[in-house]
Please model this.
Amino acid sequence: MPTADQNIYVRRSSDHVTVWSGKTLRNTDNYPLTTQGQALFEAAVLAGNHSGITASNGGTVAAGVAPTLTIPNPPVQGYAAYDVKIQAETAASNVNFSGTPGDVTTREFFQNSSHYADFAFTGMPVSDGNYTIILRAKTTSGTDTTIVDLIINNGTPFQVSIPPTGGGLTTVTVSGKAFQAGDNTLRFRGNTNNAGLDYIRITHPASA
Model:
């Protein structure tokens, strides 16, 4: 079966302006390099009868799928796993701490919505909802759950429950949170009962 690379130009029917371009393979037995063969080939591609189209930006239209005026998305570039931990003592906060910044030292106590700490996470690899937030925190109560608020990029607060620790530290994991690629802010804010905060860590798996 003789084949040849064939340029594809997707044009608007209203003014015939090329919206995007790409390449596919052409069976020159079925679609000979003649005026009639060209017309048949174009009709086939518009109906999705092609072996796959690679757009100029690297995006693809799968075989059997009719191209549209929207250029396919380019392939996602690979990225490494993201894993950044920020100590509460280095965040911008109106809650005090004592001692040397580092693990175990905590800002305390976040008692209500007037108490907060703002964290700046930079260089996040991708915009999606596959980020995991890990809090290391403690409560003063040994019996009651403590509620805190987290706020991503000044968005809608969502609540996180910290089990009673009676002064000891515990780790709370919140999965499936959305951040944008690049730089983001995360606010930790008091809500109900007393919380002390050691650090916040955010992770994201590497691309496949």
User: Anything to note?
Assistant: The longest strand covers residues 128-139. The chain has a mean pLDDT of 94. Residues 104 and 116 are 19 Å apart (CA to CA). The radius of gyration is 27 Å.
